Amino acid sequence: MGKTALPSDKSIKEDRISQLPDEMLISVLSFLTPKEAFRTSVLSHRWKCLCPFLPRSLDFDGLYTMWEIERGKKSLQFERKKILQWVNDTLKSCRVSTMDEFRVCFELDDGSKSHVDGWIDFAISKGVKRLELDFTARSPFKDASNFYRFPNERFTSDKTCIKSLTSLTLKYIRVTGELLEHFLSNCPLLERLHVNNSEDLVNLKIYGSSLKLKYLHIIRCLEFKSIEINAPNLESFGYVGNEIRLHVHSAPRLLDVRIGGMYSHPIYYAFGSLSSYLYQLESLTLDVHSYTYNGVEFPEFQTLTKLKHLKVTVATNEGSSLLGLIPLIEAAPFLHKFVFELILSKINFPKKARKVKKYPNEHLKEVEIVGFAGRAIDIQLVVYLLESAINLEKIIVNPYAPYIVGIPRPENVRTTVKFEGAREAAKRLKEKQLTRAEFVIM
């Protein structure tokens, strides 16, 4: 029998990756993050030569590192220097002519201004389509005066159109209404604008028959006072914060609305300005803070005939009541999915469950309860839903706090923020067989 030929030293040392066509190498690299692409460049000389041209989307996500810092395993100051170097080194090597996305997610402040200013200039010069700077602070009490200040003068003094930009997201960044209005006027393709935690934002006017804007969300900007909206293509509007002067002059395509208050500020004022558009909504999200014994109460709603998805987040205490949600649920006769999030404060005077008249709900198919505490306050709401939604297909009960649910985090980071006995209370509800729907306990 012949001997099996062993590979020669030449074939062992041969760089087979270099023999692949550029198109195939580019296809492989396109599935990698910027960090992975540059790390793997040691595999081949040609691979390394192609890396500067890829990818067209640069996502510098430091969320995992932020979790490690939160747990005391890493130093914020040290990791901040690393991410600054990472971004700077990548941009120095980048040779792409155009860019689809540029995103940075890490806690940065005005001390990094010279670096971030350069990143923005780079992204704009490459015709970036989606720009996101998420500098979310770990502490909600961090001094906002230290937040990174967006370089207004770079744009408000330059009337050149930024023709490529379609999406702009700014979190924990100081940005003015003047600058945002400039972007809206000089970015003819801008469809998405999201601003979170900017104390420089006070007033905003959204005007223009040619506006492409479809998505506008202003979240927790504490100095915000007023907004005027005249946007023919707006589909999604969100505002969470203190009571403001809200004027919606024209939004004929509005389908999705999020309204939320802060620190017990009411949200009901917003419904007056939105009253002409409530009937056409398909999705409604409400964030409510209520710490009174009367509980959550909503004004009488017009019939929400097109509403399919309703999400309500309530921060309250055990002595409160959630039965005030029922008229809102019943105002949407074709509601398909209801998501309820409870942020509950413990007190020593819980109320007893009250009986409420139930009306059959024929269209509600899915219910999700997040932050289930297993107390009278939320058990009575769950029982109402189980008994009234006669065609319910699935109910999900999650005892974990809403502020940790759905947040990406490392697998080795475990959170146990839930009320004692909540899971057992959910099991007892499941055993009562109040519904034939699938009953899932997370």
Gyration radius (Cα, Å) is 26 Å
Gross morphology is globular
Largest sheet: 14 strands, parallel
Number of DSSP helical runs = 13
Low-pLDDT segments: 1-12, 406-416
Report helical residue fraction.
Answer: 25-40%
What number is the mean pLDDT? 83
User: Can you count the beta strands?
Assistant: 19
Provide the β-strand percentage band: 15-25%
Distance between the termini: 62 Å
The strand line-up of the biggest sheet is 1-2-3-5-7-9-11-13-14-15-16-17-18-19
What class would the helix/strand composition place it in?
alpha/beta
Organism: Quercus lobata (Valley oak)
Protein name: F-box domain-containing protein
InterPro entries: At1g61320/At1g61330-like, F-box-like_dom_sf, F-box_dom, LRR_At1g61320_AtMIF1, LRR_dom_sf
Pfam families: F-box, LRR_At1g61320_AtMIF1
